[in-house]
Amino acid sequence: MSGDGLLVAVDSRVHRIPAQVKIVALFVFVLAVVSTPALVFWAFGLYAVMLVAAVVVARLPAPVVSRRLAVETPFIVFALLLPFVATGPRIDVLGLELSESGVLGAWNVLAKGTLGVVAAILLSATTGPRDLLAGLERLRLPSTLVAILSFMVRYLSVVSDDLHRMRIARESRGYVGGRAGHLKAVAGGVGALFVRSFERGERVHLAMRSRGYTGRMPLLSAQGASSTQWLEGLAISLTAVLIAVASRVVGL
Amino acid sequence: MNAIHVERLVFAYPDGRQALFGVDFTVERGERVALLGPNGAGKTTLVLHLNGILGSVAGGTGSGRIQIGGTDLHREHLPEVRRKVGLVFQDPDDQLFMPTVRDDVAFGPANLGLRGSELDDRVHEALVQVGMQDHADLAPHHLSFGQRRRVAVATVLAMRPEVLVFDEPSSNLDPASRRELADILAGLDVTLLMITHDLPYALQLCGRSLLMDGGRIVADGKTRDLLGDADLMSAHRLELPYGFNPMSVPGPEK
Amino acid sequence: MLRSGRNKIKNVRVHVPDGFFDAPTSIATGLIAAGAVGFSLQRANREIRETGPALAGLTAAFVFAVQMVNFPVGAGTSGHLLGGALAAALVGPWTAVLVMSTVLLVQGLLFADGGLTALGTNITLMGLITVLVGYFLTRAILQVLPRRVGSVVPAATVGALVSVPVAALAFTGLYAVGGAVDIPLGKLATAMVGWHILVGIGEAVITAAVLSAVVATRPDLVYAARHLQQELVLIDADGNTSSVSPDKPIAAKPARRALGVGVAVTFIVAGVVSLFASAHPDGLEFVGAKLGFESAAKHSAVAGSPLAEYGVSGIGNTEVSGALAGIIGVLVTIVVGLALAKLASLKADRAS
Predict the structure, then answer these.
(1) What's the domain range around C296?
(2) What Pfam families would the database entry show (chain A) (predicted)?
(3) Residue A79, domain extent
(4) All residues at 6 or more sequence positions from A64 whose CB lies less than 8 Å from its CB, including other chains
(5) pLDDT, tens digit, for every residue of C232-284?
(6) CATH number of the domain residue B170 falls in
(7) How far apart are CA B181 and CA C216, in angstroms?
(8) Same domain as A229, residue A205
């Protein structure tokens, strides 16, 4: 797992919007989507069109987006089960007797979940980890939390590499996995990984103190976002809020 | 004047392992000293005492006396001592903890109170010293190991230390990176203490060596003499590389 | 919260996505999560000042990496770790809440994993409930076990075992309050808790194995057992031996209180959540049917489940009996856990 997250390193209008704007935009957009009644199909159509447009402007390759959609899989399974387990009046679809509210619920979870994931992909694919941290810092996330986040992001790849090397070491000595007797080997490795990570944490802290750390991390963010940038970044989200309000007022 | 003076230093780790059993040595200002010894001798533990990270000053279990630049190591001197003594860790990943190279090199000077253009200049100067000025905006995990080691040196140089302490500077480097680092080190005007298993590197850079084993200093002398003493070497699990004769190569003494 | 324990779906960490719960529930859990993180920041402040934010960050990176490991837990299946109870035992409850929240935040923002509006829900379930239930149960059980560092293994095993179904119960409770679709809550609760007792056993086995590996190499790192450490022996330059107490930056809390808090937290969570669940019309109807106030329980889907015997018959108030069912569920889990712990410590004694 790389420490870059899902970043697609190209230059685009979306990439250039300051991170704090994008985080707020994502949050507002998803909140608008979540508050839209499931039956207002046109609203979801509009959300999808806007998101696709943003993905195109951000010059994200379609395979990247669709591959990340896989994180949704377990909930698709859950959603597909809903028509069978939910209560209420039944309808007949292709010879299957399904619950009406279940079908609607499945649509609700699928539509909102998918829009949410695509929007989140848009953020993580256009924003580098450092910018994200700086954005969170500008949004007044407590500095201790920003510091923990920053260390986590920095050492994600280091710890994952450690883990990867341990697995290779185990497998190259004939470990195949699957048998309960091997639980001890895997868990022992993970225990050792914790000790390693903890000791690295101690050493990093020593390195920080060696360079004069006294409890305050230096600020990451340099400048704020201009109001034009805020407007540009929030354009889609504000439209989404209007749509959500309209969908509540107008209904179908 | 003494750059480092250590007297009867004793230390045990929180898990009960005792690492130092009474260490004494002195390093003069401007000297370059190699710290040799087998694995587990206590070398790293010793150097972590020099800027008060381990030991009784840091609330650890131990006793003894440490002087840096003639002043006793006390809790109230810690910030100053940590500026004076620059520590370069063995694993550059331990040292490079900020999101980008620039952030990382700026970390120390920013803690010293530098801001704005003064800070930028200090960062640039340190990166130029190790030849990494073109990589300032990269994340550490995008650098090669040798580049990370050099950036780690820059993070410490940016503090303008008087004493530079290295933990195995040449480990895991390819031959070209190893030589480039030696060139950088040879050009620095500081007191140098360097833990190493790379005996030719010790001979090339350091006129004097300390040999440590079992938590004590067991030998102290000219690097060439120590490396030439076959009995001493084998008693402490030290071996010269195949075909290397310490008597026939040039050292730092001209 | 739903976790796939089967071998086929590998490396999937399942988080609640956007749209799964309605907006008010998402906002409410968001507030709970923010409050919990704020409180933990305050409580962990001292630890973090001593050990540095790097340690918490590394622990978070560790949890993130370990959540992707497939553990063979027997019978051809493999399990994943949530890690809440483990993190709590290793670095303490408040730092662990921060660690788990950080992991979820990074997964949501950097890897588009788990919805942003559902972040509060995910933090509440996986970052708060598993950690607190796991930790306080661990401390509570340490009270009755022999006073040595090794006791933390069976204690945390029970903590881990109970923490998962309790979180599943909380998930069901949230679903009762703000689920987007009406599904019979009883069915959901039974399925979730039943399934998560199995997941919890996996979690417990993995937690025990990882903790014993840490106890074997660096016992001083286990936060929950810091107060059980032995004194150090120091030999000075002249060979004199002296005995000193290990430098423990943060002593764990006096444990008498932990016993009460642990039991209370578990019961309150279980009780309140079940109450919520049963307050829902469908849940009421179902719980009523299940408990035998209506003619018979016809829900065949439930008959074979582990919770099928949880009926508390003869109690007229369905809400009370719903809460009781939850508490009894937890009690049964604790008893099973204690039995496992007993077995584990017996085995450890024989081995040593």
Answers:
(1) 23-228+254-351
(2) CbiQ
(3) 13-134+224-250
(4) A6, A8, A121, A125
(5) 566 666 666 666 554 444 444 444 454 455 555 555 555 554 444 444 333 33
(6) 3.40.50.300
(7) 39
(8) no
State how far the Cα of A99 lies from the Cα of A84, in Å rounded to an integer.
6
Task: Name chain A contacts of B149, Cβ cutoff 8 Å.
Answer: none
> Cα B160 to the chain's mean position, in Å?
14
The torsion angle over the Cα atoms of residues C41, C43, C49 and C55, rounded to 10 degrees, is: -70
Residue A8 in domain: no
Interface B–C counts its CB contacts (< 8 A) at 40
Give domain status of residue C8, yes or no.
Answer: no
Residues A151, A180, single domain; the answer is yes
CB proximity list for C167: less than 8 A, separation 6 or greater? C1, C82, C84, C125, C126, C129, C130, C133, C196
Q: How distant is the Cα of B149 from the closest Cα of chain A, in angstroms? A: 14
Which pLDDT belongs to residue C14?
59
Rounded CA-CA distance B103/A218 in Å is: 9
Rounded to whole angstroms, the Cα distance separating B168 from B201 reads: 10
CA distance C327 to chain B (A): 41
In a domain, B54, yes or no: yes
Distance between CA atoms of A83 and B196, rounded to whole angstroms?
68
Q: What is the pLDDT of residues A221-232, one digit of tens each?
A: 667 788 888 998
DSSP state at residue A3: T
Establish if B17 belongs to a structural domain: yes
- Whether A55 and A98 map to the same domain: the answer is yes
Least confident segment among A121-135, B223-237, C102-116, C243-257: C243-257
Going A136 to A139 to A143 to A144, the CA torsion angle's sign is negative
Who's near A31: CB < 8 A, 6+ residues apart?
C23, C117
Closest residue of C to A82, CA-based? C183
The answer to whether residue C7 is domain-embedded is no
Distance of CA B254 to the CA centre of its chain: 24
Report the half-sphere exposure of B216 (CA within 13 A, side-chain side): 12
* pTM score, whole prediction: 0.78
What number is the ipTM of this complex?
0.88
Q: Do C232 and B16 touch (CB under 8 A)?
A: yes
* A72 lies within 8 A of chain C by CB: yes
How far does A184 lie from chain B, in Å, by closest CA?
24
Pair (A20, A127) in one structural domain: yes
Note whether A120 and A195 are same-domain residues: no
Banded model confidence at residue A177, pLDDT cuts 50, 70, 90? low
Q: In chain B, what's the furthest Cα-to-Cα distance?
A: 56
Say how many domains are in chain B: 1
The pLDDT of residue C235 is 66
Mark yes or no for CB contact A203/B159 under 8 Å.
Answer: no
Q: CA–CA separation, C31 vs C19, rounded Å?
A: 17
Q: Is A52 among the domain residues?
A: yes
**A contacts of C60 (beta carbons < 8 Å):** 148-149, 151-152
Query: Are B206 and B225 a contacting pair, CB within 8 Å?
Result: no
Domain that holds residue B26: 2-89+162-235
Q: Please provide the DSSP assignment of chain B as one string.
A: -EEEEEEEEEEE-TTS-EEEEEEEEEEETT-EEEEE--TTSSHHHHHHHTTTSSSGGGT-EEEEEEEETTEE--GGGHHHHHHHEEEE-SSHHHH--SSSHHHHHHHHHHHTT--HHHHHHHHHHHHHHTT-GGGTTS-GGGS-HHHHHHHHHHHHHTT--SEEEEESTTTT--HHHHHHHHHHHHT--SEEEEE-S-HHHHHHH-SEEEEEETTEEEEEEEHHHHHH-HHHHHHTT--PPTT--TTTS--S--
Residue B135 lies in a domain: no
Residues from chain B that touch A154, judged by Cβ atoms under 8 A, are 97-99, 140-141
